[in-house]
Amino acid sequence: MAVKRFVMMVAVVVVAAAVVAAEGFKLCNMSEDDLETCKPAVSKPTPADPSAECCKALSGADLTCLCSYRNSETLPLLGIDPDLAMALPAKCSLTPPSQC
């Protein structure tokens, strides 16, 4: 089972790399630059308060889509702590999806 999971993770990374190379990285309407802007607020061990630029980027994001990554391995692969990421909308005075 562990080998199958590893193979699936490698496949996801390869596909993601191909997408990045083809059109630039985007996740739930957030560009790579948007994600980098928010990274200090969603990275352990000492997350910063979100910047105004981060909150602006997050306001244009598909929050329901981001919520769907809560239990995936994608966010940690990007250096993002899922729990900190799920708390970010409230810190930016945005209403998180009800099912998140």
List the SSEs and their pairings.
Blueprint lengths: L1 H22 L2 E2 L2 E2 H7 L13 H8 L3 H5 L6 H4 L4 H10 L9
Antiparallel strand pairs: 1-2
Task: For the structure shown, list the relevant keywords.
6 helices; 100 residues; 4% strand; mainly alpha
Strand content of the residues, in percent? under 5%
* Mass-distribution shape: globular
Distance between the termini: 28 Å
Estimated structural class: mainly alpha
The oligomeric status of these chains comes to: single chain
Helix content: 55-70%
Mean pLDDT: 82
Biggest sheet, strands in spatial order?
A: 1-2
SS elements, strand count: 2
Total helical segments: 6
* Biggest beta-sheet profile: 2 strands, antiparallel
Provide the gyration radius in Å.
Answer: 14 Å
Low-confidence parts = 6-15, 17-22
Secondary-structure element sequence?
Answer: HEEHHHHH
Please characterize this protein's 3D structure.
The protein has 100 residues and is mainly alpha-helical. 56% of the residues lie in helices and 4% in strands. It has six helices and two strands. It has a two-stranded antiparallel ribbon with strand order 1-2. A hairpin with a 2-residue loop joins strand 1 (26-27) and strand 2. Helix 2 packs across helix 3 (52-59). The model is unreliable at 6-15 and 17-22 (pLDDT under 50).
Short description:
This protein has 100 residues and is mainly alpha-helical. 56% of the residues lie in helices and 4% in strands. The chain contains six helices and two strands, in the order H-E-E-H-H-H-H-H.
